[in-house]
Amino acid sequence: MSDDREYPERPWVGIGVVxxxxxxxxxxxxxxPPRIGSWSLPGGAQHLGETAQQAARRELLEETGVEAGPxxxxxxxxxxxxxxxxxPRYHYTIIDYCGHxxxxxxxxxxxxxxxxxxxxxxxxxxxxTKAVLDMIALARLRLAQASA
Length: 148
Description:
Elements: E1 12-21, E2 24-30, E3 39-40, E4 43-45, H1 52-64, E5 67-82, E6 88-103, E7 112-118, H2 130-147
Parallel strand pairs: 1-6
Antiparallel strand pairs: 1-2, 1-4, 2-3, 2-7, 5-6
């Protein structure tokens, strides 16, 4: 099986974490391609032999230096980009977890240039994609429902 992410033989599994500290959400600015310089949620590829939740905790710690308390599934989405012929050029299945900060000081690590705890009113300044904004809102709702 190919390890090439462009024109893959199978979908790649990506893991993300929507982590809250009070009303603030943790964002990372990508320090390496793809999407260098863009802001997003911490996350990355799942490794062979680790569960999705283990991957979420590993990526969160590697990229930000923080740990989450209990995690719950926020959502699963597929990001598929087709070429002009209709063939999948990229296909990522993204599993996003959500939870609350537990420990650690947020510092950039791994492939991250900067990290930030962001209040909801400041989100527009980070030029997040609609998909990321929607995921943050959904995660906030799921956590509120779980604690009610």
